[in-house]
Predict the 3D structure of the following.
Amino acid sequence: MSEILLSVEHLRKAYSTPKGVTEVIHNLDFQLAPGEFACIVGPSGAGKTTLLRSIAGLLPPSSGQIRFEDRVITQPPADMAVVFQEYGRSLFPWMTVGRNVAQPLIEKGVPKAERERLVADALEAVGLSANANSYPWQLSGGMQQRVAIARAVAYEPRLLLMDEPFAAVDAQTRADLEDLVRELWKRLGVTVLFVTHDIESSIYLSQRVLVLSDRPTEVLADIPIELPEQRSQLETRMLPEFGEYRARIYELVQQAKRGARTGSLPTVR
Amino acid sequence: MIRALKSLAYLIVLPALLLAAWWIASTLNPSFFFPPLPDILAEFPVTWDFARISAHVFPSLGRLAIAYFAAVVIGVLLGILLGLSRIARGLTEAILEFMRATPPTAMVPVIMLFLGIGDTMRVVVIIVGCVWPILLNTIEGVRGIDEVLSDTARTYRYRKTGRLFHLVLPGASPQIFTGARQALAIAIIMMVISEMFAASNGIGFQIVQFQHQYSIPEMWSGVILLGVLGFALSRIFILVERRALAWYQGFKANTDLGG
């Protein structure tokens, strides 16, 4: 097996509340190899966002550990970028689009010339070169999310975490953004972990879909997606294999909602 | 053009009516303590000639400026520290509540005991009175920063200075300006009060002097001068705020509160 970029090991995340202990994530294990594009789906409230935030280093595990580039994560690690669902709230309103994209590089200490090149390339990659001097609140929702993606891309991360980034965007824009993310993934060779509740998106985008159980969450199924590398919104989604994956994953999510756990799955079909 | 004239009209119509009412009432029914407005206005340039302005208005404004900026610096620095640390807030909560509730004017005799009757006392009186809105609004502004922004700064590993100058300060700045605006009004009041006892110069001192000498129209002119100064300072503040918070106006206008 090739090098492992991300390893989630026996992750458990629980909160104490006045009513007792709530276990959000129970015993979650999976690994990502460099260059993979993996999606995470699961029932609502399954803890997908908690998982992503734990991987991002924003939440400490209750037990277990997460290793990234072979180091245990205790706080947000270098070489990792996150694109949040609430794009409007993740961009700094007092900075222009260009400055928003540049700021993480400034913090990282990247020299000016290289920084300007990275910012310009990233904005061009998402199609927003003309908007470098606009303010985020002057742009539409889809454009704002593209700024957030540009910012992540300019940062040159090894792992890109995306937390339902297109959930709050209209369907047409979502389709464009999906294709954009796939193209960036192929071009940059970055590893992508994409959390979504949209099963069809998860199949269209990735090479691998991890289906989570309901709380306390664990990995219910890990499904390789064998679809052609070249994907198009129209053709790929009409392939019979696509429909089979969709049916299978949909059924898994339904079982998850009904309380299925790893190892207790009835055989599908 | 029409819109500018319209807003100007809105701004002056009520004051103009009130001034006219004052003019008419005081002229028809003059008394020693309530002289006709035209007399007061006629006295104005005579009373407030350059000599008196440099002897009283400049020192007052000088003390006001020093005290106000000191209060801003203290209030913002302390506000940021307290805003960022729940422990610090918990420890200081009782003291802050107590001091905030104490009317600043009541503190004047206490401050005089410690600092005597010089300029230091006067500056400290202003600071003690006007730091509270700045401090408390800064704390609220820091605490109110959007957590998605804060998470973004964390995931991109912003350094401490980066967080301070590119997240905390700009994020809290609208609230800080609100506090600073309230503080300006209080600072002017404290400035006048600090000059009304045991003083040797200042606008407040001069007004009380006029009162003691029964120079009533001059006294009124001092009061009007204070009003004009307060108004001018607040307009200057608004100009500064508009420039500093230009992004905020655009942001509010274009963002539904759902983000």
In short: The longest strand of chain A covers residues 20-32. Chain A touches chain B at residues 53, 56-58, 75-76, 78, 80-82, 84, 86, 88-90, 92-95, 103-104, 106-108, 135, 137-138, 155 (CB under 8 Å). Chain A has two domains: 6-79+158-264, 90-156. Chain A has a mean pLDDT of 91.
